[in-house]
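Hey L., structure's done. Input below.
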Amino acid sequence: MPLIKNSALTFSAAVLLVIVQILGSSPAGANQGIGCYYIRYDIKSSNNRIVDSALVMVPADQEYRTSVFYPHRAGGGTTAVPGNSAEQSLARAQENALKKLLEQRGLKSVSSRSSVFSGKTAAMETVISYEGAFLPPIEVVEQNYSPRTESFNAVFLVRFSPIAFPDQWKWLEFKTRVKSIFQDIISLF
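Output:
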């Protein structure tokens, strides 16, 4: 009789482990420290001219709107500014690389607004947003300085995932909750 109970318990534990492995989407050890950063790049234009842009990056350990993180090579560059250190140039190149990666692979959304005065359109504002997430660290694959063009270029390896399209958010939230519940159950044993 005890053998049957132990077999059933072992089978149940094995099933729980398999489910947790199926629901898990990030590589082992990827979520130590700050596990995930949400990034968004907004480009604002008014009357067909770019007037502002902003890159926002915040820790997002509880971000459920991503699926699988894949490694991507992203290149960025900047012009050399006298007095800037190599670290500052590398940081600026990294920022430009993240912007390019978001433009190429991120979830794109567009919002616009027009102002009408006396029956005529006076101003039209459009904001294009690119959203994604990445897992640290961002690795520097190569970097170089070109004295001829006075530019600093670098290539980075980024584990990136675009934000899922809104119709998938409920499923991803459910999947994250189930995964969290199973991890809590397993941590009791």
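The beta strands are 37-46, 49-59, 70-79, 107-117, 120-146, 151-162. The radius of gyration is 23 Å.

-- N.
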